[in-house]
Amino acid sequence: MIKHVGLTITDPAEIKNFYQDVLGLNLKKEFTLSKELNQQIFGFYEEVPVTILSNEESEIEIFVTHIPARNNYSHLCIEVDDRKALVKKAKAHKYPCIVIERKFEPLVFI
Hints:
110 residues, 2,3-Dihydroxybiphenyl 1,2-Dioxygenase, domain 1, 4-stranded mixed beta sheet, 24% helix
């Protein structure tokens, strides 16, 4: 039912460093959202680069903007076969990881 999830980042290097190198997503498409269309859809009057990444199961649309995000509860939940391997890979790329041990399997935030 859900076609994609849209995320906002401020550092375009994160597309390769995190989403491609750590999560293993593939580049599907890149485009620039015009100021006018951005204003109509999101209420921001700025031209913004957009990258679409995907794998066999998911698609993520990443907007790169200088507009600072405020702290909130937004997050992306993913499921992987080997959580320990993902944490190791994320730490190797210098991403902070929170691992909360639970009865069945750990809860991991990167």
